[in-house]
Amino acid sequence: MRIVALAGGIGGARFLRGLLAAVGPQDEITVIGNTGDDIHLYGLKVCPDLDTVMYTLGGGIHEEQGWGRTDETWSIKAEMKEYGVGPEWFGLGDRDFATHLVRSQMLTAGYSLSQVTEALCVRWKPGVRLLPMSDDRVETHVRITDEQGTRAVHFQEYWVRLHAEVDAEAIVPVGADTAKPAPGVLEAIAEADVILFPPSNPVVSIGTILAVPGIREAVAAAPAPVVGLSPIIGGAPVRGMADKVLAAVGVEATAEAVALDYGPALVDGWLVDTVDEASVAAVEAAGIACRAVPLLMTDVEATAEMARAALALAEQVRK
Ligand code: GDP
Ligand code: CA
To answer: Domain range spanning residue 151?
Structure first.
């Protein structure tokens, strides 16, 4: 079976680990990764979501943190601080730096981000084909108003430095409107047997991938069933601040509202957590098949069970 999954960072990566445990060796998984979180620091290109997927599936992730490398050291960061060079709020460890050096060196030599990602995956062997959503530069910015007035900040600054404490007024994936899907992305979607939306952030992860012209249209037109898993449980994100960015796009932070925002033209099936069982009827009334199952990714087996439920629902809604 050919499975395509759209993925952000932590939520996407953890789900994919369960999906890999749930499928067989004959199944092929293509992951279309969000690159709207990418940031340039110290002349290096950092791709947090691609790296989280690569490190998580390749066994190099810092488990508790959910991002960055295991057994990390911080000498470069300390040295940068001595020079008074920031940003101090963004954590790039020494081992992680190597990834960004290799990536940036290859990009400077003229390779595309997809080629670079493929090269990095030769080391990490994630067990999936990892494609960036686009080789073109896309950067999500967030409009905020604080004591400095109304301004746009890079998504990473909003999330990591400001902890999403100030309201997001608008989310703009800068560059998305002229970005092209990376090679292989549209083909993978068209040829998929199943398309999955892991419990990734619906606005700044999945939403950004869908904002690349052609991708949303390809998913909607794909013959494969499309099944999503809710990142919202009991009216709140399991982790992170998805409620803040959902508010910016006028969507309530509930499993039901997120499903309806994707809509029946895009998703055929939707999984909510058992605590949200009461919302199943409303989602189904909107034309999306819905089931309530445990959606907490507490360990790989629990996550594999979520993946099995998503694949089972895909079979039920297959046209
Ligand atoms: P990011 O790029 O690191 O923010 O990661 P993603 O966009 O892929 O995923 C973030 C989303 O994962 C958040 O909105 C969380 O609510 C969701 N999430 C994290 N852990 C779990 C979990 O155990 N179960 C579910 N259903 N969602 C989760
Ligand atoms: Ca992210």
So the answer is: 139-175
